[in-house]
Design brief:
0% strand
Length: 487
C-alpha cells in the first residue's frame, strides 16, 4: 500500500474514532428524546414538523449549491475564493429567508396543512446560519479535522434535545421541535467558524469561484433528486393521508433511519475526503471495496434486527397509541439498509468527478416513486405505499450499484460476492429471530424483546464468524485495543 493510502487510512482512523463516538452519543440521545417526545406530543406534531423539514431541506440544498463538497475536493482553494463563496451564499440565504416569510401561506395551502404558515417563518432563521456552516465545515473536512466538527455537532445535538424536551414539557407543541432546531443550527455555525480558524474577509472575486459552479451544480442536482427520493413519501403521506398518519410513519422513520443518518453524518463524511485524496491512486478501488464490506458487516445486522423486533419494541418503548408504527418500522428498516449500502459507492464516484451517477439514478427513482407512491396512497392507503417501498428500494439499489461500479471500474459480480457473507449472516439472523418469536407468545413484550435481541446478536455473530471470519477478526483486532485502553 502506498504512503498516500497510508496517510488517508490514518486520517480516517483518527477522524472516525472521535466522529463515531460523538455520533453514537448524539444518536443515543436523539433516540431517547424521540421516545420521550412520543409521550409528550401528539402524532400530528411529528407529522407537521416532518413536512416543514422537507421545505427546509430544499432551501438548505439551494443555499449550499454543492459548494461545501467543492471546498473539500478543491484542496488548493485560496482565501479570497472562500470569502467570495461566503458572501455569495449569504446573498442567497437572505433571499430565501425573505421568500420563506412571504411564501409560507402558499406552501401551507399546497400541503393542505394551515399550521405550516406559522411554523416555516420560525424555521427560516436557520438559513441565515447556513453560509457560515457551509464554508467553515468545508474547511474542517478538507483539512481532515472531521473529529472537531463531530464534537461541535455533539454539543449542538445535546442542546437541541434539551430545548425540545423542555419546551414540549411546557406544552409548546410543534414549536418545541422548531426552536430546538434553530438553537442547534446556530450553535453549529458559530462554533465551526471559530474551530476552522477561517474568518470572512471583505473580498469578492467572482472569477475565483467560477470553476466551482459546474461541479457544484452537478452535486446540487444530485442532492435535490436524492432529497426528492427520500422525502417524497413524507409529502405524499402528509398531503393525502394527513399529519396523524404521517406522525406514526415519521416515528417509525426516525427509528429505522437513525443508524443510516449516523453513517451518513460520520462514516460518509470521513471517507469522502479520503476517496477524494485517493481519486488518482491505483489502490482506490480496493480501498472502496474494503470500506463497503466493513460497513455492511456493521450496518446490516442493525437494520435486520430493527425489522425483526419491531413489534415488541414499539409496544415497550412507545406504547399502544403508536401501534400503527410497527409495519412502517419493519419496511423502513429494509429501506434504510439498502440506502446505507447504496450510499457509499456514490461517494466514491463523486470523488472522481462522476456526479452523473447519482443524478441518473435519483432522477429515474424520483419519477417512479412520485407516481407509484401517489397512486398507492390515494387508492390503497399506507399499507399499499409500504408494499410499493418493498419493490422500489431494491430496484433502486441494484441500479445504483451497477452504474457506480461501472464508473469506478469495479466488477459488479466481484462487488456482490464481497458482500455475500454479511448479507447471508443478516438473513440467517432475521430467520432465527422470527422463528424464536413464535415460541415466545406467552411472554410479556419486555421479556420477548430482551430474548429476541439476545438471539439476534448471537445468531448474527455465529453467522458472521462462519461466512466472513477474516473481516470479523480484522474489526475485532482494530476495536479490542481501544476497548482495553478505555477499560
Amino acid at each position: 500500500m502506498t504512503s498516500e493510502v497510508g496517510v488517508a487510512t490514518a486520517s480516517i482512523r483518527k477522524s472516525l474514532g472521535w466522529t463515531t463516538f460523538a455520533k453514537i452519543i448524539a444518536q443515543i440521545t436523539t433516540f431517547a428524546s424521540t421516545l420521550v417526545l412520543a409521550r409528550l406530543l401528539v402524532k400530528a406534531d411529528f407529522g407537521l414538523f416532518a413536512l416543514a423539514l422537507v421545505y427546509m431541506a430544499l432551501c438548505d440544498n439551494l443555499v449550499d449549491f454543492g459548494f461545501q463538497s467543492s471546498i473539500i475536493q478543491r484542496r488548493d482553494l485560496a482565501v479570497p475564493a472562500l470569502a467570495t463563496l461566503y458572501w455569495m451564499l449569504n446573498a442567497v440565504a437572505i433571499a430565501l429567508c425573505g421568500l420563506t416569510m412571504f411564501a409560507a401561506p402558499v406552501v401551507a395551502s399546497f400541503m393542505r396543512e394551515p399550521h405550516l404558515s406559522g411554523l416555516l417563518p420560525v424555521l427560516a432563521a436557520v438559513l441565515l446560519f447556513a453560509p457560515t456552516t457551509i464554508v467553515s465545515a468545508g474547511v474542517l473536512s478538507r483539512d481532515m479535522r472531521v473529529d472537531v466538527l463531530a464534537r461541535i455537532e455533539l454539543v449542538a445535538a445535546l442542546i437541541r434535545v434539551t430545548v425540545t424536551i423542555g419546551l414540549a414539557y411546557l406544552e409548546f407543541g410543534v414549536m418545541s421541535f422548531a426552536l430546538g432546531y434553530v438553537a442547534e443550527r446556530g450553535l453549529i455555525a458559530s462554533s465551526a467558524l471559530i474551530a476552522s480558524r477561517w474568518q470572512p474577509i471583505a473580498r469578492f472575486e467572482p472569477r475565483s469561484v467560477l470553476p466551482l459552479f459546474s461541479f457544484g451544480a452537478q452535486i446540487t442536482i444530485a442532492r435535490l433528486l436524492w432529497l426528492g427520493t427520500t422525502r417524497i413519501d413524507v409529502l405524499v403521506i402528509g398531503r393525502i393521508l394527513g399529519t396523524d398518519t404521517l406522525g406514526a410513519y415519521t416515528i417509525a422513520s426516525q427509528i429505522a433511519m437513525a443508524f443510516f443518518q449516523f453513517i451518513a453524518s460520520s462514516y460518509y463524511r470521513v471517507v469522502y475526503p479520503a476517496f477524494s485524496r485517493l481519486q488518482a491512486s491505483s489502490h482506490r478501488n480496493a480501498f472502496v471495496e474494503k470500506s463497503s464490506v466493513y460497513l455492511a458487516l456493521v450496518a446490516l445486522p442493525v437494520f435486520g434486527g430493527i425489522a425483526a423486533v419491531a413489534g415488541p419494541f414499539v409496544e415497550v418503548f412507545l406504547g399502544a397509541k403508536w401501534s400503527a408504527s410497527v409495519a412502517p418500522l419493519q419496511v423502513l428498516a429494509l429501506v434504510a439498509a439498502l440506502q446505507t449500502m447504496g450510499g457509499l459507492l456514490p461517494q466514491a464516484a463523486n470523488a472522481i468527478g462522476r456526479t452523473d451517477v447519482g443524478v441518473r439514478v435519483n432522477l429515474v427513482t424520483l419519477l417512479v416513486m412520485a407516481s407509484t407512491f401517489y397512486l398507492a396512497a390515494k387508492f390503497g392507503g399506507l399499507e399499499a405505499l409500504l408494499v410499493t417501498w418493498c419493490v422500489v428500494a431494491p430496484v433502486r439499489f441494484l441500479l445504483l450499484c451497477n452504474l457506480a461500479c461501472k464508473a469506478l471500474g469495479i466488477s459488479i459480480s466481484h462487488y456482490a460476492k464481497l458482500h455475500l457473507g454479511p448479507a447471508v449472516s443478516c438473513a440467517l439472523m432475521v430467520a432465527v429471530v422470527c422463528a424464536t418469536e413464535m415460541l415466545l407468545a406467552s411472554l410479556s413484550a419486555a421479556s420477548k424483546l430482551a430474548v429476541e435481541i439476545a438471539v439476534a446478536a448471537l445468531s448474527y455473530l455465529l453467522g458472521a464468524l462462519w461466512f466472513c471470519r477474516p473481516y470479523v477478526l480484522a474489526v475485532a483486532s482494530a476495536v479490542w485495543p481501544r476497548v482495553r485502553r478505555i477499560a
